[in-house]
Amino acid sequence: MIKLISRARARETLAVLVAVSLSAVIITTIYSNIRSVEEALPRFGFLSFRELHAHIRDVDRLRDMVLLVRADPGSAEGRAFLSEAADLAYIRFAKVDRSRITAELEVYAGLRDRVLTIVRTIDDMLSGTNTPDQTVLRALTAELEEVEIELNRQYYSVGEESNEGLYAAQRALGTLNAQVLAILLILSTLLIGVALLLVQRQRAAKNLRRLAWHDSVTDLKNRAWLMEKSGKFILDAKAANKYLGMYLIDLDHFKQVNDTFGHHVGDRMLQVVSERLKAHNLHRSAAAVRLGGDEFAFVKAADSPEEFVELGETLCRELSGYLELDGHPVRLAASIGLSWYPDHGQDISLLLKRADLALYAAKADGRQRMVTYSSALKAHSDTRLEMEERIRKGLENDEFSLVWQPQLSVSTGRLTGAEALLRWNDRQSASTIQPPEFLPVARKSDLIVEIDRMVLRKACQQAAGWMPHFPDGFSISVNISDRQLEDQNLCAQLAGLLKETGLPAKALELDVTQHVFAQGTETVETTLAQIRRLGVSIALDDFGTGHTDLAGVAEMAIDRIKIDSTFLSKLRELPRGHRMVNSILSMCEALELKTLAKGVECADQLDFLAETNCISAQGFYISQPMSASVFSNYILRHGPGHEAASSDNRNVRLHSGSQ
Amino acid sequence: MTNCQTHASYRLIFLFAAALALIATIVPAGAVERLQDQPVTSGRAFSVVRDAGKIEVDLAELSTLPRYRLLTDSPWEEGRQEFEGVLLRDVLDMLKMSDASAVIIHAVDNYSQRIPREDWQDYPTLLALRADGAFLGRREQGPTRLVYPVLDHPELDNPVHKNRWVWLIETVERVD
Fold it and tell me: pTM for the whole thing?
């Protein structure tokens, strides 16, 4: 990382150095060329030329006038012309500023003096009345001619110099022009490049922002966007004096859809949900956000909370039903938690938290429904959270233990197995907490998985030690939760555990509830089939309670049915109870399923079971649950070697009575 | 001379000085200044070519026009000079030529320059008759020469206007 940064920095420095040297070359080239043009330009400017020319003209005119007077010295007109020419020469050489010419022409000062002397001589000559003297006039002519020749020589010499300079300057300008053109081309190319880079950078930034704020699967906004805009949502609602509803939507059994049909079907399902949510985002008055996984948020402003409830129910309805995705019939169901500003929270985070609580309640209530947040919900949640924390600590401190309830063969009275039951010796309250008090809480969190694992491990470890006592077979029943069954690794874990503890697979029976089958997912069925292939048995627990799918029993991958205790307890109250239990047992016999009746509390019940050919029984009348060590003693007393204990039901009854 | 009188004369001097200071602040150094009671001279000034005819203008005629003093630098001569004369505007008004788009002024040595109307409309361009307190003879580029107020209007200090400083004025020609 640091290396990358330093390399990037080195590249930056290089770019800056290249740019600086390039501009230095450009500036130097341009400057030196302009200098060369400047140097080549003639120093003797156009106005100086004009001046010099005027000088020559005035001297020439003066010479002509002298010649005129020489030709006719007596003519007054000639004298007037000469006087005028002398005036002009005087003005040119004496009055007009000559500084530039003087500076440029070294010989000028001398020539000037000579012209002014001539002018003075002419003035003197004309001031008198005498006819001008021919000798003086001849001398003046010669002198003026000399001056004129010298002036002309200078004129042509500086003219040629100037011409050369102008030619050189013209050529230098041509070169400069080409260079400027080339540089401008380079600069404009750079400029275009920079402009393109800027545009691209802007586009990339926009893209990045889109990526950062978008969910690619559903094309909805994501959690980061929701958090970024959270303040704005509240402010807008506040400004418009509106309520802001926060729906937290969670798809029921989404994981199973993914596991069963593959992720592409899961993604399609998410897309269907997002489409349906988007349909409610009319006029951009709402926002649908995928928070992650199968969790969506829908934020909407409304004038009254009633609108929220109404919309929530609509959403619930719309997000349920069967979909045909890639040829698979998939069930869609969603649970929704609702909270709104300002009643349930003043910021998005709190609204999300409270909607989450409501969602949790919706899931706990049996899913596929909407629950609105309330303070009672919060209190409930607090209790639940506290319980979760206590369970977590309990697990850490190994406060959970197993008790075992024996299972007997009804026909022989022999000990054939035992069910592992969970007990929690809570140190905090210094009391034993019964499973119904903490299992529901554990089931709603991930704790149930840990508990399941712990129970399985302990049961297998403890039972492995009892195996040598039972050459004819002995099996332990362990309850396993729906959540654990959804774990695709369960089978592998189980195989590892059996190997580790040395418990034979056939000595383990897992109790599952009908609920598992009601879900009807392929994952669970596959897992159950795999477990059975290991040699582990599956028993259907609590048979007869809730919605029992009698027709389905035939299809279930199970080995035993455990008849719920309510049947035995109601034998007397219900006249047809006998016949019902009877028919269940007959059905099981026909399906070749083993049977076990739970909740045997008196001798009559045991007698009844014996009459109806129920295979095994379990209950307080036989024995209360006992700790592993007590159960070890129990085995010693009631195990296969003790015929008295197992042949006579009465003994069992007496024993249980003494517990 | 009494004390009181001395006091009064001091006060007079003070007031005079104050007035001078006031004038000095109001009138900038190079400004064109209207003159009163200036000496008059006569003689031919220049010819005017107008409506295919030629008329002579005398210096005495020019002297009847309001006279001004102008302190300015000349691009042709060294140092600052004080010219006196009449405005070209007034001269052309008098000659009924101020509506012309331009005039061409010819000099004795056949030098000539086209003077556009802006030069006399926008600036107090002077037809100088005197310089440094004396009338302009021929050696002083007279009897009339054109002078631009370069000091007050530095924008006139350029090669184009420099050439319009015509001296030894011989003819003024109307251009329409």
Answer: 0.46
